[in-house]
Amino acid sequence: IQAWSYLVTALNSGVMTLGYVPSSTISLASGDQIVMHKFYNFKTFKDEGIITKDDTSKFLEILNSNDKNVLRIVWNLVTLFVDEEIITEAELKDVKYKFINILSSENENVRLGAWSNVIKLMENKVIKREEIEKVKDKFMELLWSKDQSIRLQAWIYVDVLVNEGIITVKDSINFLELLKNDDENICIDAWYRLETLINIGLTKDDIKKEEDKFLDLLNSSNKDVLFLAWDKFLLLADIGIKKKDFSKLKYKLIELLK
């Protein structure tokens, strides 16, 4: 797989041409992971003649792979193949259940990767809105992840899902729970995105009810949490949290200055 990656780089940079690669090497490349990698570099390989019509017929087989990491990557290519008229929406009907399944994968990286493709697949009519809405609770779980990188990437997709109407005011209860989570790192991620939460439908009164939790964050011993909390204190003041409550904690801001 790594060698195929090097081949792409070499071809794109002009260091070598396809003539240097024995045809037997290309035809013998098989297995879900390797075939997936060929498809992942579709544009380069198509131009060089590495991907042929015979190869594209294997694409649907790879979409039905039992390797979840392969599924996560290869489903990212579906819209490209639909646009190139290599596969049709009708052909995907029998395998899309595989994609729906990885939206709930126990592997958080696989699940997150799948959710990053949801809107593109929905726009291409590969999957339906109602199919996504049925499993969106599995996306919400990512916001509670102990892995910070997973949480931060999931929060990026929150805005997209809100704009598309997948996440709505009906989900606001979940975000209120995040605002008072016992884990400071999970909690501050939510407070730091108040604009998004307000866009979802949380009211100022909803937020003010949890102001004690935010004040705790302003008094955190975790410097990372402290920085993020103080970055939002003016917004909270505008919402209506009493400025005198902030004044009691201004010594924490002085600590940061030092």
Please, what is the oligomeric state?
A: single chain
Sheet with most strands: none
pLDDT average, as an integer?
Answer: 80
**Which structural class matches the secondary elements?**
mainly alpha
Number of strands: 0
User: What Rg do the Cα atoms give?
Assistant: 24 Å
Helix content: 55-70%
Uncertain segments: 23-30
Strand content: under 5%
What is the global morphology? elongated
Count of helical regions: 24
The string of secondary-structure elements, in order, is HHHHHHHHHHHHHHHHHHHHHHHH
Q: How far is it from the N-terminal to the C-terminal residue, by CA?
A: 50 Å
For this entry, give a set of tags.
single chain, 258 residues, mainly alpha, 24 helices, 0% strand
Written account of the structure:
By secondary structure, this protein is mainly alpha-helical. Helix 7 packs parallel to helix 11 and helix 11 packs parallel to helix 15. The chain is built from 24 helices and no strands.
